[in-house]
């Protein structure tokens, strides 16, 4: 209907006064050619990414400047230009007007496909104002109505125009615009007034050009109907939501760019297509809130710390003045009321109850799409010396434990007499069951010791532990008691098997003195122990020199590691506990409560102080398309297909697999792997994940999005396989397979119910005689569960 109105309008303005049948037929030819050209150009723009991967839709081709029907170079960025219609590039025939002249084409600099303007979307302004020869404005009276392009039919020669055929081409004639067009203004980076014929100019013979224009609306009315445009908008939002909801502390809204600067910096896009879309459409994003925000969305029960909004197409303002929204200047683009309507326009950026669509709909393209940002789920906990050192409590021998609140360090040393150790306990009760725990700290012993290598002097000792103890002991006041005691020097300060807390505990010991009663090896070692016992006999295990994660103890070489001469070096430890494991800890899923837990410890690891994520090596899935589904890849399975950056499953209990040839190497025994993915469920059901001969229990899925991170220890080389039940329908995205960086030691332990919540601390026990005195300084401790 829009096209009919335009062509009737053009007929009124451009049809000559001679209404004879022959002339009407000729003018209809002009109108038909212009309409065909317009449709071809809109088609080019609306399918641009189909032929130009990783770009956004909407760009128009450059003009033909050498009369061969092919688009040529477009000159400088944002500079408008004019030339012949590139009919070969558009895949159409050479379209002609009533005088058998081929059509011309004026193109706004911001709409051309090369070089591209900085930001291109449905708010990008065209650069033409179209008038007729009488001065009446036909298009472009307001900024957003200015055409992206104007198609021109030059019609017959007027005045001194000369159109000799200097080359033999389909269209013939010259490449000089003034030989064809009477009203082409000065072209540049600003607006150009382009004059076409009026009834009077046709009669007087001063201007006989006919024109038909293409606006942003013409193009994006077509683009927004595409399912992949809908997916682009939703992926932009979904990726940001997933990213922000994985953060313990979400970014505060920025002062500029409607609050989005910090979240865009914090959540960069990955795939080229998403990067291109984000770069061009980020102006439609609005973000309010931060760590202390209080919001609701669509009257939901969830308490949101922030809201993320995609402001749709321009509509009418709902905040005074009640005029159409405009986004033509920097000031207008920074005005939220030019993007939001209703309660959102009234509230933003204040706390409150926001409302809007959850998905993009082309039939309601102006609707605000509103998402709730919660940050990390409830139960995630983080404790650090940097933020929480004053809250820790010291127990045991005094002054065995000393703190420096300025440097944020803790020293555990000998107290000069007695047999008590020193302990430093966090009062924070940490959720463990159903979580992943990650901790990191650095330590340095006080004195060098060569006894382990030479045996020539007294052996300094004893060492320290990182101990997690049960958190289920009531304190009589409705809460739970953290440890209020400390173990002995000989037990490295750790609470032992007869202690109410120590009897159910996980321990990572760093032992620098051989204690025959504990069956210690001859050499400094680190080991994972349990339930208060540091005895290496029986289930305690004897540390070995393998130190590759195959045992629960590492015997270091040289044997005096940690007590180096002439001065001990600074070392580090990283500890991860993955819960929800099977009895051999070859598969762990933190979403499963109870069962077993896998404890891993790294010593002197590099780049390992970030406890937000597991300690992983490089990605094993070699082709990006097999991870982000930006294109068909190597995944295969009945009723599975790559659709809009995801692996989509439609129906049936049919598996999808990624062959080992798509990995840098097949799953290997002796290596742990972290597998991440996002499940977007549209019909509830369950899905199982298998890798390397191990499989998860069915992961029950409700409708919605869920992120997973699983650990597998392969027992064979079977490939990564996804197996839904007969009910589940949905999409898999953001798949990653990465080896866990090999730890020094591992241990699979029972997840006792009493350890579902834990307290943790650093304990130490050191000798007091002058030739055996020792101590250790800790710094940069951070622990997190999620």
Describe the secondary-structure layout:
Elements: H1 2-14, H2 21-46, H3 48-51, E1 81-84, H4 87-90, E2 104-107, E3 128-132, E4 137-139, E5 149-153, E6 192-196, H5 199-204, E7 210-214, H6 216-223, H7 227-244, H8 261-266, H9 272-281, E8 285-289, E9 295-297, E10 306-310, H10 330-333, H11 342-347, E11 352-354, E12 369-373, E13 381-384, H12 385-388, E14 393-396, E15 401-404, E16 409-413, E17 422-425, E18 430-431, E19 436-445, H13 451-454, E20 462-470, E21 505-511, E22 525-530, E23 553-555, E24 571-581, E25 587-588, E26 596-603, H14 625-628, E27 640-642, E28 647-649, E29 656-658, E30 673-683, E31 685-691, E32 694-695, E33 699-701, E34 704-712, E35 720-724, E36 729-739, E37 745-750, E38 757-766, E39 775-785
Parallel strand pairs: 3-6, 9-11
Antiparallel strand pairs: 1-2, 2-5, 3-4, 5-7, 8-10, 10-12, 13-39, 14-17, 15-16, 16-39, 17-38, 18-38, 19-24, 19-39, 20-21, 20-38, 21-22, 22-23, 24-26, 25-34, 26-37, 27-28, 28-36, 29-35, 30-34, 30-36, 31-32, 31-33, 31-35
């Amino acid at each position: 209907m829009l096209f009919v109105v335009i062509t009737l309008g053009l007929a009124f303005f451009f049809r000559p006064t001679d209404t004879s049948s022959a002339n009407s037929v000729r003018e209809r030819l002009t109108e038909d050619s212009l309409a065909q050209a317009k449709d071809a150009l809109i088609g080019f723009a609306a399918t641009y990414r189909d032929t130009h991967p990783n770009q956004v839709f909407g760009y128009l081709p450059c003009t033909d400047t050498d009369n061969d029907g092919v688009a040529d170079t477009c000159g400088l960025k944002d500079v408008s230009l004019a030339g012949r219609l590139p009919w070969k590039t558009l895949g159409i025939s050479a379209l002609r007007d009533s005088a058998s002249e081929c059509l011309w084409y004026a193109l706004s600099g911001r709409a051309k496909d090369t070089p591209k303007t900085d930001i291109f979307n449905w708010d990008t302004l065209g650069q033409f104002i179209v008038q007729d020869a009488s001065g009446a404005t036909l298009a472009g009276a307001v900024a957003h109505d200015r055409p992206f392009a104007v198609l021109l039919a030059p019609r017959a020669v007027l005045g001194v125009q000369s159109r000799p055929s200097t080359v033999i081409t389909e269209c013939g004639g010259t490449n000089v615009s003034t030989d064809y067009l009477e009203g082409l203004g000065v072209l540049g980076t600003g607006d150009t007034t382009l004059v076409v014929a009026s009834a009077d100019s046709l009669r007087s013979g001063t201007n006989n050009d006919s024109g038909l224009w293409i606006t942003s609306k013409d193009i994006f009315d077509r683009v927004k109907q595409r399912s992949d445009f809908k997916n682009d908008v939703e992926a932009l939002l979904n990726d940001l939501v997933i990213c922000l909801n994985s953060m313990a502390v979400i970014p505060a809204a920025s002062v500029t760019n409607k609050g989005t600067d910090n979240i865009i910096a914090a959540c960069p896009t990955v795939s080229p297509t998403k990067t291109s879309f984000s770069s061009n459409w980020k102006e439609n994003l609005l973000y309010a809130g931060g760590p202390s925000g209080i919001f609701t969305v669509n009257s939901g029960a969830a308490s949101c710390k922030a809201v993320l909004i995609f402001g749709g197409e321009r509509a009418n303002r709902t905040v005074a003045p009640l005029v159409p929204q405009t986004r033509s200047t920097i000031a207008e683009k920074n005005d939220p009321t030019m993007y939001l309507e209703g309660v959102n326009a009234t509230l933003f950026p204040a706390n409150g109850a926001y409302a809007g669509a959850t998905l993009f709909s082309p039939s309601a393209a102006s609707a605000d799409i509103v998402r709730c940002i919660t940050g990390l789920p409830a139960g995630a906990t983080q404790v650090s010396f940097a933020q929480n050192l004053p809250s820790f409590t010291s127990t045991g021998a005094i002054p065995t434990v000393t703190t420096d609140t300025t440097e944020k360090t803790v020293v555990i040393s000998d107290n000069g007499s007695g047999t008590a150790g020193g302990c430093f306990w966090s009062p924070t009760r940490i959720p463990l069951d159903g979580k992943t725990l990650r901790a990191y700290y650095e330590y340095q012993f006080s004195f060098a010791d060569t006894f382990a290598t030479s045996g020539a002097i007294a052996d300094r000792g004893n060492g320290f532990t990182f101990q997690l103890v049960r958190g289920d002991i009531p304190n009589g006041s409705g809460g739970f008691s953290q440890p209020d005691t400390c173990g002995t020097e000989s037990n490295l300060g750790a609470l032992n098997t007869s202690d109410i807390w120590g009897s159910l505990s996980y321990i990572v010991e760093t032992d620098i003195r051989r204690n025959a009663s504990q069956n210690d090896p001859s050499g400094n070692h680190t080991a994972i122990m349990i339930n208060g016992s540091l005895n290496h006999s029986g289930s305690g295990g004897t540390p070995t020199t393998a130190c590759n994660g195959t045992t629960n103890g590492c015997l270091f070489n040289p044997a005096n590691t940690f007590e180096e001469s002439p001065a001990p070096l600074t070392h580090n430890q990283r500890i991860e506990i993955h819960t929800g494991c099977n009895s051999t800890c070859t598969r762990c899923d933190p979403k499963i409560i109870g069962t077993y837990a896998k404890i891993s410890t790294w010593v002197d690891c590099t780049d390992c102080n970030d406890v937000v994520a597991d300690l992983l090596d490089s990605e094993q899935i070699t082709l990006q398309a097999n991870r982000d589904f930006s294109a068909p890849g190597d995944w295969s399975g009945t009723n599975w297909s790559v659709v809009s950056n995801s692996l989509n499953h439609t129906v049936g209990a049919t598996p999808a697999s990624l062959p080992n040839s798509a990995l840098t190497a097949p799953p290997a025994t002796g290596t742990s792997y972290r597998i991440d993915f996002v499940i977007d469920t549209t019909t509830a059901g369950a899905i199982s994940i298998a890798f390397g001969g191990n499989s998860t229990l069915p992961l029950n899925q409700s409708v919605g999005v869920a992120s997973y991170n699983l650990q597998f220890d392969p027992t064979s080389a079977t490939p990564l396989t996804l197996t839904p039940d007969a009910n589940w329908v949905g999409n898999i995205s953001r798949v990653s397979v990465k080896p866990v960086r090999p730890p020094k030691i591992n241990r699979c332990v029972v997840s006792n119910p009493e350890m579902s919540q834990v307290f943790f601390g650093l304990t130490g026990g050191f000798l007091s005689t002058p030739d055996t005195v020792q101590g250790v300084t800790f710094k940069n401790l951070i622990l997190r569960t999620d």
